[in-house]
Amino acid sequence: MNEQPFQVPKLVGALLAFGAGIVDVCTYLGLFGLFVAQVTGSFIFVGAQVLKYAQFSTIHTLALPVFFAAGFGTAFLSALAGKLRTALCWTLGVEMALIAAFLVAGIAGWPFTRPDAPLALTTSMLGIAAMGVQSALVRLLLKEASTNVMTSNTTVLALDVAEWAGAAWRARRRPHDDDAATARHQAGARVARLWPILAAFFAGILFGALAFKVIAFWCALISLAMIGGVLIWALRSAPPT
Prior knowledge:
Layout: H1 10-30, H2 40-52, H3 58-81, H4 84-109, H5 118-142, H6 150-173, H7 178-215, H8 220-237
């Protein structure tokens, strides 16, 4: 597979982030506070339940190995595909299939009354797996910032804005300082690529919360449309090698 970076349109990351926000808020509102876009909360929950001798939480405990397995499977499938475009299409196709299954299971089981009910577990793990695939394919194939883990993105954005501000201050004081001008330009470019992802994820959360109140898990159809749009881009524009 070609390891050379290629230009990924900003819209690609924004579409993935918007879709991830919708899936995450669906599970949070419909599946007992579960976050599927990242598993930090599940690590904390599993550790806390041991300390507090709390009741065993199946969905939070299974979230950890399922997310890991989804990332592993994405890397394995990408290696099998060989070519970049093929790997993108295969992994995006897998994510679409997982979100479609998440949608069907969520509709079939809603409203969920117990977190350990079969359809509740199924829906939760499908959402976790879909986000695990997305997290891995973005990092492995697109070489972009995460589209579903906003903690690291927020930290990176803060660092980039601070670097841009410092370089801009130096450039104003020393107009002929080429290093400061270069640093300002590079930091500004990184900020310009990252902020749409955070904004799109937050927009997906807001839109998904409002939609979930009205149509419950049907709002995952929007996530399917987002992934479908990225798949079309991959088929048409991603480099083949």
